[in-house]
Amino acid sequence: MPRHRALGTEGPQLLRGKLFVLRRRCGKPTCHCASGEAHETPALAYPVAGRTNTVTLAHANLAEVRASLARYEAARAELDAAADAGIAALRRSMAASRDRRQV
Ligand SMILES: [Zn+2]
Description:
Bound molecules: zinc ion
Largest sheet: 3 strands, antiparallel
Structural class: alpha+beta
Distance between the termini: 42 Å
Helix content: 25-40%
Strand content: 15-25%
Strand order of the largest sheet: 1-2-3
Order of helices and strands: EEEH
């Protein structure tokens, strides 16, 4: 497992959620969005206590956010693999003790 820095000025180390593009019209009648393309803002949807919150992002932060999401997914995959191995070991151990009782 990689060591995780504390959160700080260097930016988030781990992030959970999904990136999406928020499209909205600002309401100004003279803005290009009134008749054409809506404004597009990158955003992160993330789960909090069973609900989904969103935070809008600056394009400059996207690379770091993507990297933090990838680190989270990698760490979670590692944990899942370790837990799967634990389940397999538990099942082997239970099967072995059943076999001993039957002898
Ligand atoms: Zn606009």
